[in-house]
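User: My collaborator sent over this chain with a note saying "see what the structure looks like." That's all I know about it. Can you take a look?
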Amino acid sequence: PKIAFTEAGMHLGQGNLSPAKQAAAEYLEMLEHSLAAHIAVINLFGGRGKTAEAEAFARQALDRMPGQANALTLLAKTIRLNRLPVSRAYRRALAEAKELAAEATERQPEYANAWLELGEVQQALGRPADALASLRQAIELDPAMQSAYVTMGTLLYRQGQPKQAKACLSRAVVLSPDDVTAAAKYAELLCIEGNASQGAALLRRAR
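Assistant: Without extra context I'll predict from the sequence alone. Here is the result:
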């Protein structure tokens, strides 16, 4: 399997899409029911800007693991991240992603990642109240889910709740001190409060 995956990456790097897809398909054929293998291939193609192929592999994962909450969540996330917000199909794609994530929460309510993805999609759809409820559920299930704190903090700030936003982003930085995204958002809030030096120090540590 490792050889096939390496060949897929090599072909992608050389701009040879067809043999890259073939090598990736061979790799996944050997690891048919491995979600981690599908995630690796999706990240490989998505990272190279091959979003249609990444989405196709995510759909293949769900076909091979029908009804599984993690496969539903993976496809929802891939759809959400692989569509440009300015495209006409973006809202339709988000609607599908929402249905997938919602189904994942119904099939496996204790799966925190499904609630996180549902919150991300709801935020993208302009439904902040629903998004916050989903994110809170994700954090309740997994109090160490750093990405949920980042998303919630960002959303709370946009909703005019800087104190609550600061608490969320502070927690995100504690959970992952090296995460530049969380540090940058927290530093922004500190600068707004007049603590520019503290914000700058936070960013230096993250880098």
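A starting point for your reply to your collaborator: The chain has a mean pLDDT of 92.
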